[in-house]
Amino acid sequence: MAAGIAAEVARTRINRYEHGVNECDLRTAKRLADALGMPLAAFFAETDEVAEAIQALAKLSVEEQRKVVVELQLKAQRSDLPSS
């Protein structure tokens, strides 16, 4: 397996990580993220939606990321305003 985990134990170990039975160190998490082609930050997202947003942002250029972040911040500010 690309993450440096033997193929015969990879499925079991990853399942245990996913279900909180075992914890992996940051280096292992980074190797898994790299092997899956996803940003490490997506592993730590509290919801699937946030993880998906992180993965989508990672595919954009830095300039495009900045634009999206500004749009999200504006949207969040508007949703914080009391309705009249």
TrEMBL record:
It comes from Xanthomonas euroxanthea. This is XRE family transcriptional regulator. Residues 6-43 form the HTH cro/C1-type domain. Signal peptide: none annotated. GO terms for molecular function: DNA binding.
